[in-house]
Records
---
Amino acid sequence: MFQFASPQYLYGLLLLPFLVLLFLRSQWTARRRESRFGRRQVLKSLVPGRSTIRPVVKFVLLCLSVVLGILLLARPQYGTSTGSEKRKGIEAIIAFDVSQSMLARDVQPSRIERSKLLVSTLIDRMENDKVGLVVFAGEAFPQLPITNDFVSAQLFLDNISTDAVSLQGTNLAAAITLADKSFTQDKKVGKAIIVITDGEDHEPGAKEAAMAAAKAGRHIYVLGVGSRAGAEIPTANGLLRDRSGAVVKTALNEAACRELAAAGNGAYIHIDGSNVAQDQLQAQLRKLQQTDSGMVSDGSLNEQFQAVALLLFLVLLIELLLFEKQNAFFSRFRLFQRQA
């Protein structure tokens, strides 16, 4: 693709017709003055070194230098710049539990908010990776397709809440199956499914889904959030109660989380109030196979002003060395007159 970075300077080319008119007028005026002193052939014999072609050639060279100077200011560009740069990264799909039990406050400020803070920090530390978001409760839904647009990932993460899925429950099998289908087709890159949950699985098939994902080359990291002692679930209408009116208490099912991580060829990490879970997850992700990308295009066009500048220099040099009168040294070559 060819273009000019500063095309506004191309309006300077409108000066060329005026320069041509000025030159023609000066030539006409000079000939009119000469006619007052005698016939042109007689005057030419009196000044043998004078040339009528050289001034025209010098003017053409000057016009060409003006054109090249304007093109130089307009900055011609052609071809996309590429470079050999090694970039390493992984693909991570984050499956986020948004069931009502994630509102429990046994982890401050709550299970869901503490998990969102961990994921936000994880995204901030990503450079050449790709990330996708899945939310699940009684069923699973894609929240953000896999991308390297981390700004959008942060925006989608901020909007995650327990209202994202209307059907309550905790369907880990659906979450893992959906996450497994969300990766790209690149087989060289390490792929991680990060499941953030309290482990209260109400549907069967989670272990089988984890084993199928592991067989496909995925690694499942289960981040268990909450405490073993458990806590009540606050809602807008007070504490959550069951049908009998008793207050519902939710606790971290650590055994189920460990079993799921083992089946998914990954690791279990407990989220508490510290940054230990963050550091452990980062260490696990660094172990995954990372892909290298070869030629990387930065999207910018190559500057071509160097060639124009060199051509401008040559034209000005020729114009400078070309005299309006014949030079004793160059006269032997007879470039601008006919040989007798």
---
Amino acid sequence: MTHPSSQVEFLNSPAYARLGLPFSEAVRVGNTVYLSGQLGNVPGKLELASGGIKAEARQTMENIKTTLAAHGLTMGHIVKCTVMLADMAEWGAFNEVYRSYFTGNMPARSAFGCSGLALGGRLEVECIAVIN
């Protein structure tokens, strides 16, 4: 669906739309794309990948890649990530996985601990991408 301003576009892939969540997968404003936060949920389901922080982190990053690909983008388009961790002691383990998803320049990033995430997740990552 397009916003009255032709500069704003609400992006939802068919797979995402089937989940029936009350927010857009991503929103494009001009050449900037704002991705909603991603959890480590199994694609098409509202259940988390099993195996702890590294498994959830991998699934989260794969979910981000899938969202980007659905809208013609790659991880190389990301310029900023915000990471929310249920346990800051898992920051190092998350970073091991996170690093493997980027080559060359790394996006700007913030990370903070929180007291709870949807589905009881261990982490959530939201990103901003720019289309050149």
---
Amino acid sequence: MTKKEIIQKLPYTKPFLFVDEIVEVNEDHIKGNYTFLHNEYFYKGHFKGNPVTPGVILTECMAQIGMACFGIFLLKDTWDQEAWNVAMTSSDINFYAPVFPGEKVYVEADKVYFRFNKLKCNVAMYNSKNVLVAKGVVAGVAFKNNIEK
């Protein structure tokens, strides 16, 4: 599975897709990035006259790269986009620096464990100046869709 195929298999689309590129991935680690565009929908109200990326969106970006993309890679032999889906089950993130419109962020995640289709990772986000934006732990699960066809 290629890095581009991993992103294509995500169950998200714009405006809720926060992955531009997977830079590196192996059985223990993933790195990826995303650029927050000036016209993202959430900047209109957060904050008036001084747009800042909400922490929940930063967490989602970290989870999409560090848990969803990583999980799809780890399930590569069995992943079928029609049959599978992913969901974040928990997060514990600390924030250290703001992210503004136009900024590119880099996410790195290291696997803590992957068993029974549940993935837990230590995750960190950096800005383009290599300043730590946020770090913590995310976990999620891959599950079979129950959609009858």
---
Amino acid sequence: MSITQVRKICTQEYHRMAEAGIFSPEERIELIAGQIWQMAAKGAGHSSKHSAGVTRCEKTLRRLLGDRVLIRLQDPIQLDDYSEP
């Protein structure tokens, strides 16, 4: 029996793959712990309660923090060398 190992992909490789056109523009993917995961289509499983909650959070953060910070909701963020949800 052979042991199979997973090779992690770093964020730089992930970006190069995207630039090379390996992923289609409409494909919803994210890099988590060095693995590429397909995300559910926007709207699939997202209720109006979820959307309303996100909007309320954004408004509250903007009111409290103003222009002192950059607020990005539901956009990619690089957490480390192997995760960009």
